[in-house]
Design goal:
Elements: H1 13-25, E1 38-43, H2 49-60, E2 64-69, H3 70-73, E3 77-78, E4 91-92, H4 93-103, E5 106-110, H5 118-122, H6 125-133, E6 138-140, H7 148-161, E7 168-173, H8 183-192, E8 198-202, H9 211-214, E9 218-219, H10 223-227, E10 232-236, H11 258-261, E11 265-267, H12 280-283, H13 290-310
Parallel strand pairs: 1-2, 1-5, 3-4, 5-6, 7-8, 7-10, 8-9, 10-11
Helix pairs in contact: 1-7, 1-13, 2-13, 7-8, 7-13
Bound molecules: phosphoric acid mono(formamide)ester.
């Protein structure tokens, strides 16, 4: 694995999950694994978990960490080739990424989609430019269409807390006042397609994900029916795929309640809007795994960084 842009970059997901959970359980110091190496993280968007868990992972590996909030702290970047740069963009991504590569042994980058042009977002201009121009490994801290650290975390969490051999896992859309990306849902779908489980997606009419991604997946637009017998309900809002970035109000109430999920475990990547996406009663119950998920973010990041710095395949 040279870079980590997608959960698909992991050749053996089962092995990765086992190794990451072993890192979590290990009682001995891991600081020798990347002692004195430098991680640089560049954020084009906000973060709580990704920023802190990846930093915590780097510290556990003995690394030093630099963080740059690109939009507020750095020069405005140009991504187009051949542009006459006489407007507001002061630096080209070509120099910027090559320069960051001089200071760091590994680079993480977060850049959300604009949700205006599907073609432009699916081209993944930011993460692809980093991979193209970096001379060190690059990993995604969430890109326009994928959140692969979250997906690895989610598989780890299901493996750790849902002992059933072939659990029923339901990915449910839920309401949100703002238009949100598809990245978490996309990566979760990719991950579940590689895990031994009964996987169902439920969403209101008009909220389908990329049909290419979900073509082999069971989809049920009746949320209650879809959730029957579920062992895990993974909840996430996303905006419409067609019209891209749109929002349509569903007629039914899609918020997750304890009546709907019954005894299923509740998962969400966080941050989550209480009593919009999910009722307090679910989030505060012993069936909620959201804090365990957030904890596992550290060990997913630790596995990815170690693999990129020390892996052999
Ligand atoms: N789940 C997640 O990526 O959280 P942050 O956006 O806070 O990093």
């Amino acid at each position: 694995m040279n870079n980590y842009k997608s959960i698909d970059d992991i050749a053996d997901l089962d092995l990765a999950v086992n190794e990451a959970l072993t890192f979590k359980q290990t009682q001995t110091s891991l600081t020798h694994l990347a002692k004195d190496m430098v991680l640089c993280m560049l954020f084009f968007n906000s973060s709580l978990r990704t920023r802190l868990s990846t930093q915590a992972a780097a510290f556990k590996l003995g690394m030093q960490v630099m963080v740059l909030n690109v939009d507020s702290d750095s020069w405005k970047l140009e991504f187009e080739d051949g542009t006459v740069m006489n407007m507001d963009k002061a630096e080209h991504i070509k120099e910027a990424v090559q320069v960051v590569s001089q200071y760091a042994d590994i680079i993480g980058v977060r850049a959300f989609p604009e949700l205006i042009s599907r073609q432009s977002d699916e081209a993944e201009p930011v993460i692809k430019a980093f991979v193209k121009y970096a001379t060190v490994p690059v990993f995604s801290l969430e890109s326009a269409t994928e959140h692969p650290l979250q997906a690895l975390t989610d598989v780890m969490t299901i493996k750790e807390f849902v002992p059933k051999k072939k659990p029923k896992v339901v990915l449910s859309w839920a309401p949100h006042p703002r238009k949100l990306p598809h990245a978490v849902a996309n990566s979760f779908v990719k991950a579940m397609k590689r895990v031994d489980c009964e996987f169902v997606i439920t969403h209101p009419e008009g909220y389908h994900l990329n049909p290419e991604l979900t073509k082999d997946v069971m989809i049920n637009t009746d949320q209650k029916q879809a959730m029957q017998g579920a062992d895990v309900v993974y909840t996430k809002n996303w905006s419409c795929y067609e019209p891209y970035g749109g929002i349509v109000m569903p007629k039914e109430d899609w918020m997750i309640t304890s009546e709907k999920i019954g005894t299923a475990k509740f998962m969400h990547c966080l941050p989550v809007r209480r009593n919009v996406v999910v009722a307090d009663e679910v989030l505060d119950s012993s069936n909620s795994l959201v804090i365990e998920q957030a904890n596992n973010r550290t060990y997913a990041a630790l596995w990815v960084i170690n693999k990129l710095l020390n892996g052999k395949d």
